[in-house]
Design a protein that fits this description.
It contains 7 helices and 5 strands. The longest helix is centred in the middle third of the chain and has 34 residues. It is α/β, with parallel strands linked by helices.
Length: 195
């Protein structure tokens, strides 16, 4: 007989997984105590890097059923979600997503759904990259300086170099110029690279 597990995830501590648990129960799934794994972690963290999901993975066996309320509970990255579903299917676990009509994502219909979702995600990612590149090109053409502003201007950098040569401490210079030690060390490295 198949065991039923639930994976419920929220992104922030002020959110709760109670609604997800209730939704799974309302859909007619009975999840025994200890088989509902809940965690608070961003969906942008890969599933295999989440402690709660890894705990769940260690409990799952062939013929088990995993229920999620929405696909984004598994993750926000379509490629990660697809890899996760494929990994679960490889060990014989069926994955049901309530938001997709309860479809088993490891079935032929579910794999087709996952393929469409992955294609849409890839298309959206390509559009985002295209728009970003276009925006950067336009900004460059307008003469805008791109990138993070320097924490120390050119004149101050010259002073830092001279003071470093005089033996002053990196930490003291960082405090005085209101920047990080790493910024001072980068200035020192750029001078050493020229010499």
């Amino acid at each position: 007989m198949s065991r039923v597990f639930a994976y419920c995830r929220v992104s922030t501590a002020d959110q709760t997984t109670d609604n997800q648990i209730q939704e799974i129960a309302s859909a007619g799934f009975t999840v025994q105590k200890g088989r509902a794994i809940t965690e608070t972690i961003s969906g942008s963290v890969l599933a295999m890097e989440r402690n709660g999901f890894l705990t769940l993975l260690n409990k799952l066996e062939s013929n088990d059923v995993l229920i999620v309320t929405k696909l984004d509970r598994l993750g926000r990255n379509a490629m990660d979600v697809r890899a996760t579903v494929e990994r679960l299917a490889a060990i014989g676990v069926r994955v049901h997503c309530l938001a997709l009509g309860g479809v088993d994502l490891t079935s032929p219909a579910g794999r087709m759904t996952m393929g469409v979702i992955a294609a849409v995600a890839e298309f959206e990612r390509d559009l985002l990259v295209e728009r970003t590149q276009s925006g950067l090109s336009r900004a460059k053409a307008q003469g805008k300086v791109l990138g993070r502003p320097k924490s120390i201007n050119h004149e101050a950098s010259k002073q830092v170099v001279e003071r470093l040569k005089a033996g002053e401490a990196v930490a003291a210079l960082a405090r005085e110029y209101g920047t990080s030690r790493q910024s001072i060390m980068r200035i020192r490295q750029s001078v050493n690279a020229v010499m």
